[in-house]
Amino acid sequence: MPNASRITFSIPEILSQKHEECTSLGITAVRGDSVSSVAKFKRAYHTMNETWETEIGGLLAELAEVQTTLLTVLEEKRRLLVAGDQVALSAMATREQELAKRLQLCHDRRQHMLSQASDAGLPSESILSLSGCLPAESRNPLQASIREATSRSRLLQHQCLANWVLVQRSLLHLSQLIEIIATGGRMQPTYGKGSDRVAGGALVDQAA
User: Fold this and answer.
1) Residue 114 lies in a domain
2) Pairing of strands 8-10, 34-35
3) Disulfide engineering: 182 pairs with which of 51, 79, 121, 201, CB 3.0-4.6 Å?
4) Are 156 and 145 in contact (CB under 8 A)?
């Protein structure tokens, strides 16, 4: 086995390795011309792991809470759309706006975290890739949470699409009602030359 004291890597090179690969070699860290002892490096590396684990875990916990709450709100909104409860739907606007702000904050926090990772020479393509630098006991639960967040995100997209379809159907129904009121229930022919056209609808023109 190579002499551990003669093995040197830059900090980004070390941190890009899997945790097991770094610790098993007893690597000496080099930053420019300054050499850190193995013990000092291990302490710093452990502190860095805890910092990233805390940051990623905090982001995922906040995201999970927002996603879960939003799923509940969307389900409630779907029921109100079916029931046609316009008053209750209007009252939900404030809750939806607040959740949208919280989601944006999660996005901004994620981007800032990945920017910091990039500056440190760590994987910064995604939170999943960044979590890959952590030791297995931290990495595995975090990546499980990431997969759960991805699953909830797909479910949110499905719920949003379902609600959008309901809104479009409501608008179509409303449009048909307006046409019935305006024409007195007499549908105008699509084709026809010289046919008599009603100037106004009976429901609109007749006095009460």
Assistant:
1) yes
2) unpaired
3) 201
4) no
Residue 129 has pLDDT above 70, yes or no: yes
DSSP state of 4: G
Which structural domain range is residue 100 located in? 46-187
Q: Is residue 162 part of a domain?
A: yes
Place of tokens 């941190």: 15
Residue 201, SS3?
coil
pLDDT beyond 80 at 15: no
Instruction: Kindly report, residue by residue over 160-176, the tens digit of the pLDDT.
Output: 998 888 888 776 656 66
Count of the separate structural domains present in the chain: 1
Within 10 angstroms of residue 201's Cβ, the number of other Cβ atoms is 17
With respect to residue 194, please indicate whether it lies within any of the assigned structural domains.
Answer: no
Residue 41 scores a pLDDT above 80: no
92-106 pLDDT, tens digit per residue, is 989 999 999 999 999
Name residue 204's amino acid.
Answer: V
The type of residue at 159 is Q
Residue 190 DSSP SS3: coil
The terminus-to-terminus CA distance of the chain in angstroms comes to: 100
Residue 20 lies in a domain: no
Q: What is the mean pLDDT of the chain?
A: 74
